[in-house]
Design brief:
Distance between the termini: 25 Å
CATH architecture of the largest domain: 3-Layer(aba) Sandwich
Number of domains: 2
Strand content: 15-25%
Strand order of the largest sheet: 2-1-3-4-5
CATH topology of the largest domain: Rossmann fold
CATH superfamily of the largest domain: Response regulator
Structural class: alpha/beta
Order of helices and strands: EHEHEHEHEHHEHEEH
Amino acid sequence: MHKALIVDDEPRILSGLGELIQWEEYGIEIAGLAGSGAEALHMLEARNVSILITDIHMPEMNGLELIRRVGQIDDSVKTIVLSGYDDFHYVKEATKLGIENYLLKPVNREELSSTLLSVVEKINQEAERQRQIRSDAHILRNNILNRCMTNNISYSNLAERAGLLQLDLSSTHYTVCLIKLLFHEKHDQSYRGLMQYAGENICSEVLASCRAITFCDVEGHIVALFHGNHPIDSAQIKQYAEEAMFSIRKF
């Protein structure tokens, strides 16, 4: 559910917009109604808002300034502007700030609906692109680490790829810990893949404080690569591994 913040200094407009459409039908939840730009900024930082619907003409901080400030905080927020004036100057300035649409008051239900449908589709498409980018980066990362572990990559290639993937492989001492997940024969490949991915993420979180790089090898085992500039105590690694396995079992 996407969260929307509505901003207007007129209480009648705020309540009217909240009741104009069935927001949940668009996959939107109204996260807050703000009567000023300052109040809106406070709400935005606390409520993970993805859609901003704001009036242009407000005292102290007008809508254009609010949009600029919001963009500095989170440039992924989509903005819809409201105004009682068909003023080309405001339309032009708002357009420069990357708004999704400019609606005249009183707001037309159909125009608001079509705008929200377009905005939600855009947000979903961007989220899917980001998910795909993360997935591709994760696959590339695991591929490079597996090639490193099997001595199947040149040093120069490894250094270049590690830099791109922000992997710190500059340590002088390394210790490998292998965690094997055991499955019942009734568990299909989809379930096993899901558990391997979840187990890798759990290990990454549990071992984040001890300089361990985690990934899955080609057989689906979870590999924890402990590294540092001094010899690594095996008893300490065993303790870390047991903590990771305990967290996986709880999952």
